[in-house]
Amino acid sequence: MEFTVKLTDAQSRVIIEKGCHTHLADYMEFNGRVMVVTDDNIPDSLKESVLCQFEDAILAEVPQGEKAKSFEIYTDLLATLLENGFSRKDFVIALGGGVVGDLAGFVASTYKRGCRFVQIPTTTLAQIDSSIGGKVAVNMNGIKNCVGSFYHPETVFVDTDTLATLEKRHFYNGLVEAVKAGCIGDAQLFDIFKNHAHELDAHSPYLEEIITRSLLFKRSVVQQDEKEQNLRKILNFGHTIGHALESLYNLEEYYHGECVANGMLMITEDMQIKQDLTGIFEKMNIPFVKAPDADKCIEFIKNDKKASGSTVDIVKVDRIGEAYIEKIHIEDMKKYFGR
Ligand SMILES: NC(=O)c1ccc[n+]([C@@H]2O[C@H](COP(=O)([O-])OP(=O)(O)OC[C@H]3O[C@@H](n4cnc5c(N)ncnc54)[C@H](O)[C@@H]3O)[C@@H](O)[C@H]2O)c1
Ligand SMILES: [Zn+2]
Question: Is this model's pTM higher than 0.90 or not?
Fold first, then answer.
């Protein structure tokens, strides 16, 4: 299966096929040098299966985890490209999860005003969500994604075979973004979770459909609103509270998807949807955050870049498959905590 994300000045080709990461040149021509950016926790077998396809590829390994999205590591990677004489016609390949994708993408977007960029996402989160849409960034002064740009990969190779080694907790964490896509835009996708959440793993026959549906939905939104002026905000369902929870726990105790799952539950008012979501997340072993400090969360929401003045745009779902944006006073967000 393959499709294209068409944007104003770019397009991304998305290939969803088992085994595709082992024969990249069958899909596109790599007529230049290659730097593969990956992290030090990704299995060697995965790195080998990509590196062996190129004669003189450079392997740039960064430490695993959010801390790799730093300015220091970003400049180190730029220096490696420069020292090795890379031109803007050469390739940066991101092999890893959302961290490697965001970091390598930001490097590619700024090196010589933009070199060629390819993604091989290896987590559910990256395959479902972060590998398309073009948001690339690093963190600074403890603030997530505060330096970045929009830069779309020319090709994304989605290979569910790469997920076989992914830790279960990360596997489910990423799937939360697919549950979100179901809630806001694809009722059939939501039904897959309602019926099969208890039996999902890397070998599940439903996995490719879940990923494909999520990506197609994200494509439809991104193509209509590339730079998050308006419609794209619906992708933030569960994220206003989710980001506050991430900050409350210092980006450590819970993963992004887990916080978003809790955010989705807290913001949902329809009792049936809330019950269905709770059932799905229980089956996915998502931890439930108990009584978070509402005042501190409100402070984090005030500092969030999505808040303007005393109001914030939140995403609501009253019927599965449909979302709308509501502007509310940040102080009124309190009612969603402790529910
Ligand atoms: N750009 C976007 O639109 C967007 C959207 C959502 C999230 N993000 C970003 O994505 C990041 C989170 O991404 P993530 O959840 O993929 O985390 P991650 O990249 O840190 O990966 C999670 C862990 O899984 C390991 N791993 C990756 N692939 C593996 C594999 N195949 N087998 C075994 N282990 C593997 C990694 O080493 C890491 O320890 C955050 O920085 C977030 O801001 C970006
Ligand atoms: Zn998210």
Answer: yes
